[in-house]
Amino acid sequence: MEDAKQFVTNLFKSNNMPIPASRMDVLDAFIQDEQNIAAINTIIQNQNGLMAKWKLEDRIAEIRQQPVRVLNATVGKPYETKFDFDKLQWKDITTFEWEGLQEVGLRYDEQTKQITGVPTQSGDIKAKFKFKIEGQPEVAPFNEKIITLIINPDPKSLWKNIESDRNDPFWKEDNITEFAPLGDRHILVSSKRGRSHANIGSCREDDFAFKDLDNGWSIVVVADGAGSAKLSRKGSAMACNEVVGYFDESTSIESMAAFDELLHEHMGNASADTKKNLTHFVYNTLGKCALQVHKKLQEFATKEGITLKDLSSTLIFTLFKKYDAGYALLSFGVGDCPIAVLNKDISEVILMNWLDVGEFGGGTRFITMPEIFKSDKFATRFGFKLLDDFAYLIMMTDGIYDPKFVVEASLPDIKKWKAFLADLNGKNEDGVSVELQPDNENITDQFSRWMDFWSAGNHDDRTLAIVF
């Protein structure tokens, strides 16, 4: 009774009808009337019902307006993001369903409390989260909350792939992959036009060449044309072909026979003098080749009325030959393209050249630069190794080196090379593997696909040669 009296007093007061103390006896009689008691109970029930309804509406509005952010996704890449009701403080949600996830390749996993899948389209996806909360009747319609999911396009799709002009007088194939016997080994080599060139329809600037010579030596050449040089595509092609042409001449083939004699003498009675003679032979023979390449490029530039700088290209090459005692490897390098040999059990990496980067190199150098032949460091550009055996001879341009090794300091680390081989074997984002076996009929297709790997910010030409 006292609660009813207080309720009526407050009700009347809120309606500007305060009850004076002199009327309290009248109020007591008023609230004892059965009809008035029923009316009071009805008002209280309606009020409670209204408040309960408001609480539901307020809670629904709170959930709808609550900021919810989910991780951005990318088309074609596996995606998962937490969508945990407990963390969102949505424990009062009794039932829910999603609308708009399946259409873009996603779903909600109730066990893991994650949105997962592989997005199939890009854009700001407005997914509908439809829900009911405690207190709502089963027949009540679902409430809706829009969850915005940003799905970025596949970065690869943003790049155009415009064919280069076949009518260009110095045109070359945009992409080329080859597999062939070489010496007592095999070579797998691929040169791919970079996305930056494909995007505007310009030509590949990298190049390569390889050949078995008639004297038992085999040669592999790789060159990277300078992006700033307007005819570097021709410069790199000429550099590679001129190296092979030099060692393929009969005079060079005959002169290389002197190495056999020097090596035989060294193996029979190794001394500082015999090693010095071998080193001098390498320097003299390979140095003449490098200088001839430079001169041929100069002659071409003069003939075409262009500058030698227009043909700027790095250049690395390696000759190898199997002897009874093992393998001899001779190398030359100018520029930022590494030459590496991995020993038989892949426990050691032997670098056959240093790179023209950092403090030692002072910046990229090219075979077209006359100053490299006058530098006191010219003699250090040659490599000579005698090995019992080796697993891989690997040569690459910076289009491979930059994304896979990042910095020069990684090159002497055998762990980095093991990781590189694992990458080739399929340990990569795309799961693309290359089976480095001579009897692999799909080896060129596998290698070509692997060479298309995505690396943010690395869109140069790529050339990679592997002798195994």
Automatic annotation (TrEMBL):
It comes from Ilyomonas limi. InterPro entries: PPM-type-like_dom_sf, PPM-type_phosphatase-like_dom. This is Protein phosphatase 2C domain-containing protein. Residues 193-423 form the PPM-type phosphatase domain. Pfam families: PP2C_2. Gene3D superfamilies: PPM-type phosphatase domain.
